[in-house]
Design brief:
Layout lengths: L4 H8 L11 H7 L8 E5 L2 H10 L1 H6 L3 H16 L4 E7 L5 E8 L13 E3 L10 E5 L2 E8 L2 E5 L2 H6 L8 H9 L6 E6 L13 H5 L5 E8 L3 E9 L17 E2 L12 E6 L3 H10 L16 E9 L2 E8 L2 H4 L8 E5 L2 E5 L2 H4 L16 E5 L2 E5 L1 H12 L8 H7 L5 E2 L1 E5 L1 H12 L12 E9 L2 E9 L10 E8 L9 E5 L4 E7 L4 E5 L5 E6 L9 E3 L8 E5 L3 E5 L11 E2 L9 E3 L8 E6 L2 E6 L22 E5 L2 E8 L2 E5 L5 E4 L12 E3 L2 E5 L4 E5 L5 E5 L7 E4 L4 E5 L2 E4 L2 E4 L9 E5 L2 E8 L4 E6 L10 E2 L5 E3 L7 E6 L4 E7 L1
Antiparallel strand pairs: 1-2, 1-8, 2-3, 3-7, 4-5, 5-6, 6-7, 8-9, 9-10, 10-22, 11-19, 12-13, 12-20, 13-14, 14-18, 15-16, 16-17, 17-18, 20-21, 21-22, 23-53, 24-25, 25-26, 26-27, 28-29, 29-30, 30-31, 32-33, 33-34, 35-36, 36-37, 37-38, 39-40, 40-41, 41-42, 43-44, 44-45, 45-46, 47-48, 48-49, ...
């Protein structure tokens, strides 16, 4: 395996983030890294990385490369079975072959090897120093445990010599201090071994040169994006490309403003002082001191080269066009197009490009123009396209895709590399030494930036699938990601208090709870002791705006923080089964929350810290409580309402009976709502029941079957009966099927209603007049939840896709 999937990340860029609190356990694992390691991969978030590798479209497409497929075949079992952070190290073994080493902290009493399917331990092999030999697929591995750290390597020699380095070398200390534990992954690469160094250019001259010595990256993956930020650096004495920017200040990269929108790729080089840049070229032997040197170039701050329709476009930007233009022969007039003069490029002018070292390689530029503050060189056809796009405001910088990319880029950088999917495919083929035609549809905007700063360069890289511009009445799939097992419930939106946006929370049939970002990144996965009853609530326990998740299984009441950690005295476990979803009450909206738990006939009231609330007098009902207790406030009075047997129970906030409902009712399976100022539900006879504050019950025949479903707001009633959906007084006939209960959403002063036919897997969305929203229904395997989950004006719906998939749609 010459290069591996992580090279895919490094081709895309690298990163630095200062971490003030390094993790001591990670420091211990780093102390076991073999000497002369070329690449170190530090896994910071196992669940997030696992999800990213499975769902990222670019990673999945790259699995066609044999070495990536081989590498991930072992990587994924290690990730899924290890519950702590680990390290992968790549180095050359005693035979100069690639050795892969895993360094994984192990909880006491836990054996990772026993948990990997398909792994065969060769117990008959006797090896020295307590080394175990095992086989996974076609590869032999050797392992031993050192201070609760599992060391696994394809090299027997490395495993024999594995020991704790009392003092980490400078490179490992740099990785430890600069890796960001909040990112999925951190990667260190030492460029001394070029077989493991990423190839970033298609130009053989640039690829032959060493780019830098050390790169440290932190990475994030979503379904449609790979984003990396960090540093790269080189020793002053080395002939590294990054040293060409030493002592220069990055300038704004503006070449995209004059390039046609159909450009496939470009590179932009900037500097604030050409004389310093020129000295660096000479000092690091990228240019002979006797080569062409023109002091009229002192006003040049940007040079660039682009690929366009099998032609090259070279651009030079000057801060003083009048001064720089003196360097060119304007007597060689060629033509005029749209009032812009085209000039022939003389042999003397052609020497200009040697002033910029290895970054400009001219093959077929024959003419030039001046446009804006740029000199642009190419053939006449390409130059006319430059003029047309520039004057029509259709340059690359004006496209929606490039504007979206720029949101993740800095305005200024020393070196900016931009490419479309074709270039990305070419660069990947160069790295993996295979000629593959990858399906990279959508990945038409990728960029890597290097911005020099003192003795290193910041790196920022974005590889993203482009999305077409939304217009009113359109709908698109934002993402579709898979988790480890079939979903047990419909995905639910929850508030992200740090971004003021929405995340997604969902549980699978193995009782794993996932928190997923609105871009499809799995933040964490937590094992629960059973299926969640009802939905997940959020509370602000500490009154500081930081929300916690509240929910229960049949045996446990959970309160989790945003990272999935338990809060206060929770989880609170119960001997007898909890039979209803936890009810969360905030009587006076002052965040003095009450949590009500139901166990058959019995109720328990707790405060937000898990303490029993004294003074709540109601403890047990005569009959089984058959609905989740609800809290309503009417005219400054509090009502706690639930069904018990065939009675509607209405209490005050201290558990005393507030309303005596004498009527016996055969309740349907619908919840209790506050509709038109009355406590509202329905019965098995198909009647709407409205109970006033005196306990009187008003019956309205809905003309529905006993398995009908209702939902209400304070003024809107929605009824789903067989295939008929009624919103207020408006009805719509749907295809016959198996429909979920309707859900009502009030967003931007509008009422929306959702239902899903689980039989045909169609999710419907209607407005308050029972009119279908354009382009619905969509593919759905559960109920739909509606929200504006980000900072744009479009709305999103989330639903279950295939068995283990979460789908988010966006519509205008």
């Amino acid at each position: 395996m010459k290069n591996h999937w992580f090279i895919l990340l490094l081709v895309l860029s690298s990163c630095l983030y200062y971490c003030k609190n390094p993790n001591t356990k990670i420091t211990t694992t780093l102390s076991l890294v073999p000497e002369n390691t070329s690449v170190i991969i530090k896994i910071n978030s196992l669940e997030s990385l696992d999800s990213g590798l499975k769902n990222n479209a670019l990673i999945k497409a790259s699995n066609q490369y044999k070495c990536i497929d081989q590498f991930t075949s072992l990587l994924l079992p290690a990730i899924r079975n290890n519950k702590d952070k680990g390290i992968l190290a790549l180095s050359k073994n005693e035979n100069d072959s690639l050795a892969i080493t895993y360094i994984i902290p192990m909880p006491e009493g836990y054996n990772l090897l026993d948990s990997i399917d398909g792994l065969t331990i060769e117990k008959s092999v006797s090896l020295e120093r307590e080394i175990t030999k095992f086989r996974y697929e076609t590869t032999n591995y050797f392992s031993k445990t050192i201070d609760s750290i599992l060391f696994i390597s394809t090299s027997l020699e490395l495993t024999k010599n594995a020991s704790v380095n009392e003092k980490m070398n400078a490179d490992l200390e740099l990785l430890n201090s600069m890796s960001n534990p909040d990112k999925m992954i951190s990667i260190f690469i030492n460029a001394k071994d070029k077989t493991l160094s990423p190839i970033q250019f298609t130009d053989s001259t640039l690829n032959a040169a060493q780019f830098s010595n050390i790169t440290i990256v932190n990475g994030e993956l979503s379904q449609s994006t790979i984003h990396l930020t960090g540093i790269t650096k080189a020793k002053d004495s080395t002939q590294s490309l990054i040293n060409l920017f030493k002592h220069t200040i990055p300038q704004e990269n503006r070449i995209a403003s004059i390039l046609p929108s159909a450009v496939g790729n470009f590179k932009s080089v900037t500097f604030n002082d050409y004389s310093i840049f020129n000295e660096n070229l000479i000092q690091h032997k990228f240019k002979d001191s006797t080569h062409f040197n023109d002091f009229k170039f002192q006003n040049i701050v940007e040079i660039g080269q682009a690929a366009y329709k099998d032609q090259e476009i070279i651009a030079i930007r000057s801060l003083d066009m009048a001064s720089t233009v003196e360097r060119f022969d304007l007597n060689l007039y060629y033509d005029e197009f749209r009032s812009v003069s085209l000039y022939n490029l003389s042999e003397t002018d052609d020497e200009i490009f040697s002033a910029f070292g290895p970054f400009i390689t001219v093959k077929n530029a024959t003419h030039f123009i001046t446009i804006g503050d740029f000199f642009v060189f190419s053939n006449p056809g390409a130059l006319r396209d430059v003029i047309t796009n520039y004057q029509n405001n259709t340059a690359l910088s004006e496209t929606d895709a490039y504007k979206a990319l720029q949101l993740n880029l800095s305005d200024e950088s020393s070196l900016l590399l931009f490419g479309n999917s074709k270039l990305l495919n070419t660069v990947l083929n160069l790295n993996f030494n295979e000629n593959k035609s990858l399906d990279l549809s959508g990945f038409d905007t990728s960029a890597v930036q290097y911005s020099y700063d003192t003795d290193f360069a910041h790196v920022n890289a974005v590889f993203m699938a482009t999305k077409s511009k939304r217009t009113n009445g359109t709908i698109s799939e934002e993402f579709n990601i898979s988790v480890d097992a079939e979903l047990a419930s419909a995905p639910q939106f929850v508030k992200n208090y740090t971004s003021n946006a929405m995340d997604i929370i969902v549980q699978d049939i193995k009782n794993n709870l996932y928190l997923v970002s609105n871009e499809g990144k799995v933040y964490w996965k937590k094992q629960l002791d059973g299926r969640i009853l009802g939905t997940v609530n959020q509370i602000d326990t500490y009154k500081n705006g930081r929300l916690q998740f509240v929910f229960n299984t049949a045996k446990t009441l959970y309160v989790l923080d945003k990272n999935g950690n338990n809060v206060n005295a929770f989880p609170k476990q119960f001997k007898d089964n909890i039979t209803q979803p936890v009810s969360v009450f905030d009587y006076d909206t002052n965040k003095k929350y009450r949590l009500m738990i139901v166990q058959d006939k019995t109720v328990f009231m707790y405060d937000k810290h898990g303490n029993t609330v004294k003074g709540f007098t109601f403890t047990k009902s005569k009959n089984t409580i058959t609905s989740k207790p609800q809290h309503f406030r009417i005219n400054r009075k509090d009502y706690i309402v639930f069904t018990s047997g065939n009675k509607l129970v209405i209490l005050d906030r201290v558990g005393k009976s507030r309303v005596d409902v004498k009527e016996t009712i055969s309740f349907s399976e619908n919840d209790i709502y506050l509709y038109d100022g009355k406590f509202t539900t329905s019965d098995t006879n198909g009647e709407l029941l409205e109970v006033n504050q005196s306990g009187s019950v008003n019956h309205t025949n809905l003309n529905v079957n006993n398995d009908h479903r209702i939902a209400t707001t304070s003024k809107t009633l929605v009824v789903m009966n067989e295939n008929t959906l009624t919103i207020k007084s408006k009805s719509v006939e749907l295809d016959y099927g198996n429909y979920t209960a309707p859900k009502i959403f009030y967003i931007n002063d509008k009422i929306y209603v959702t239902v899903t036919d689980l039989q045909s897997k169609k999710g419907y969305l209607f407005d308050s007049q029972a009119k279908a929203i354009a382009n619905f229904p969509v593919y759905a395997n559960s109920s739909l939840e509606l929200e504006n989950i980000d900072d744009d004006s479009a709305l999103e719906v989330v639903t279950k896709g295939d068995d283990n998939a979460i789908i988010v749609y966006e519509f205008q």
